[in-house]
Amino acid sequence: MDLPVVSEETAPKKSGCSAGSCGSSDDQLGHLADDIRQKVQDHPCYSEEAHHYFARMHVAVAPACNIQCHYCNRKYDCANESRPGVVSELMTPAQAVKKTLAVAATIPQMTVLGIAGPGDPLANPERTFATFRELAVKAPDIKLCVSTNGLSLPQHVDELAKHNIDHVTITINCIDPDVGAQIYPWIFWNNTRIHGREAAAILIEQQQKGLEMLVARGILVKVNSVLIPGVNDQHLKEVSKVVKAKGAFLHNVMPLIAEAEHGTFYGVMGQRSPSPAELKALQDSCEGDMNMMRHCRQCRADAVGLLGEDRGAEFTLDKIEQMDIDYEKAMEFRAEVRAGIQAELDAKRAAAHNVVPIANAPAGRPVLMAVAAKGPLINVHFGHAREFMVYEASHSGARFVGHRKAESYCAGDETCGDGESVLDKTIQALEGCEAVLCSKIGYEPWGTLEAAGIQPNGEHAMEPIEDAVMAVWREMLAAGKLDAPLQAKKRA
Amino acid sequence: MALEIVESCVNCFACQPLCPNDAIFEAKPHFLIDADKCTECLGDYADAQCASICPIEGAIVDELNVALNPPGSLTGIPPQRWATAQAEIRARGSATGGETL
Ligand code: SF4
Ligand code: SF4
Predict the structure, then answer these.
(1) Which architecture characterizes domain A367-478 according to CATH?
(2) pLDDT tens-digit series, residues A243-255
């Protein structure tokens, strides 16, 4: 089967604009064929638009792994596939099903269940497929997805295709065994532990084969890559090209997380992580090649809730045990809620469709702005923001480009003692941004941000993000700030 | 002749389904090998299966208490470098009063 997923030639643009792909600033999915976009557009991990409205969760049923990555230490949860230092609650398939049903009954926006770890789902095929099989019966409305390193993917593709699974994520960090030898110290293959270049060559071959087999069966494939400066940074452009040519529909480049505290090879050996600017540069350079997903937050493998809003604590195993749930009713309610959200999204898309592009827009360079928000409105106090969304505003509209993490600067009381250094870190994290939009901001950080060349702005509280970003951009344009190229940072 | 799983095991389940003799079982606080059943995979495989997939250095030992995967053999981190890094982390932890892993 030939999937018209990635080639520019098949983009719907040619036949005029299909709703949602035209004029909208959120048109990352615009080039996808309608049936593929349908599959993607309410997946909270894939669609920028949907992740504000729909919820996903992961269950940790897959403890074993069949390879070693230099950014992982199996004593802790994987730092890159999930967040460091937080050990997931390992569940049996039966417990995982119970938890999923409980969450889906409480959070009706729940759309997707993923199995991502803490090991590799396909290195634990019995546990993974037992979970999927039972859920397909008890909650057939919930989509299933799997994230894998790809080593045993080819042997499980047929089994995957049988289930209600239409999303698979493969982590592909390289297609060259010499690069791979610097990322993977060993794999377990055909009853033997294999090291070095030979191991990387086998892994790469299996990943590529698995990718091709999935695409041939009409299963959506996303590719994740971890950006490791000096190891695969240049190489990832090639990876992006190849996986696109083979039919992956999204390529998500994530920054390496490496701290000595995590006990990983990279952490201990002092391999550095990429800066936000390096990450963006790489994402930009792959952009022409592929539809990149920018909003991944490297969510924890057992996170529950809307992306970025972790409600896992409400659903521990003993709490679930005490819940009394009518599963049938819950499923009906989910259908209602989903229809409501869908109507809202459709209306939004229709509205975006009618937006007239700014006619004869004067030049005016693109500007990066950071936004403190949860959901689609600007509703977070600067001091409480744990992360910022970064948008690029230009005359073609506001485009989401990624997340930047920060520690919240103020705990809300007078214990802001550490505020100074945290603020410095936040300013570093916002490197390249010229404005930060939030619901409110204190007097002191205001001054410091301004001095660092980042203009704070609290005037657009509770407004939709993209409207506010464009309003600020137009103000800057009117004030003549966008004629000259970006000045060097005022503060060294 | 048997291998043994010791306390550094992280209960990752990887070894258990691989054993040709069904000698490995889940237990608290960690997985164990039934010494009567374990053959060290002789006659079945060239390498002991459990020790070939186990990701944790030192978690599986032989009858002489020798680790099948000695320090550095799986992570690639030279033991000396590991020790230095741990010392640095401890020093940072006590300087700031913060927590270390
Ligand atoms: S050495 Fe072989 S027989 Fe013994 S426990 Fe390990 S896998 Fe089983
Ligand atoms: S593979 Fe190693 S760490 Fe995992 S359960 Fe077996 S002995 Fe323990």
Answers:
(1) 2-Layer Sandwich (3.30)
(2) 988 988 888 888 8
